[in-house]
Amino acid sequence: MIVTPSQSELWSAGEQVCRQFELGEIRQLEALSHQGYSNFNARLETDLGAYVLRRYTEQPAEKINHELRLIDWLKAQGLPVVPPLRDPDGQARCTSDQEGPSPWIVFPFVEGEEPAPQPAIAHTMGGLIARLHELPEQPWENQDDDNLLSLQNTLGIAESLRETRTSSAQDFLQLMERMTPELQDLSLPSGLVHGDLFPDNTIFRGNNLVAVLDWEEACFDHYLFDLAMTMHGFCYIDEEWHPNLARSFLAGYEAERSLEPDERKSLPLFLRWTPLAMAGWHLHRHSIAPNPRQAGRIEQLLQRAQAIFDLEY
After folding, report:
1. CATH assignment of 7-108, given 3.40.50.150, 3.30.200.20, 3.40.50.970, 3.40.50.300?
2. Whole-prediction pTM value?
3. Are 306 and 178 in contact (CB under 8 A)?
4. For 205-223, how does the pLDDT look when each residue is reduced to its tens digit (9 = 90+)?
5. Which of 73, 153, 214, 240 has minimal Cβ neighbours within 10 Å of its Cβ?
6. CA angle at residue 229 from 228 to 230, to 5 degrees?
7. 264 has pLDDT over 80
């Protein structure tokens, strides 16, 4: 859950960040208009430039460090990522005196926009995901990195919702019962995946991808999980599946990495599984702290999990 600081708390944190990272004097500091469901983000403008301040409110220190190290490694591999700034001592973390243990991380502000779904954008994103899946193993790769949306975790969420009588929870449980046998014991290519690659985690200038953001959910999983998840981000317009966008996406992907026969066969399953897993995550959080925005998202995802996907390409 996002913990939104007061304006005075935000300003105090901004001043400390500017001192530690030698960013000059604050000109403007305000929350970004679009926030996710976990971390708080603000835009900082100083006399030396523009930056994004991110406060991690849920991640443990070990996971934050893993994400920052991963971003540095991805940059060295040539992917369009945005590494954090570091202070003169090489530190990326700033813990505000008034904010408790939740650390702030500073990133350069990258000019551009969130893309609208279109064939050229879908093709680019397919190619980007394939490049990620073709990277060599990281020196520290841990295949036990947990995917929050793994089948095991989602089954745990399903168990916790057994007594929940809302229609959305019951729909979720029925879909889980139907889909779980198909997902167990799959043997498919696996490796590093982003896990949450939607348009709001990318920055484009025109049709050119300039940055991929938010690697906190990166983990080790089936490549098909990442492929299907990203297709949900870039092949829908106003909750309508567009086969032409899917074809462009897959063409971009296979220009860099060919799908194996078992992956082709399982892709429709993963296109239904990924929104179902997301719905479970949102249902769990919604059961703890009800949120109208989240309730609407749950219904959208459950509709997607029941769709029949046209994948002729």
Report:
1. 3.30.200.20
2. 0.92
3. no
4. 999 999 999 999 999 999 9
5. 240
6. 90
7. yes
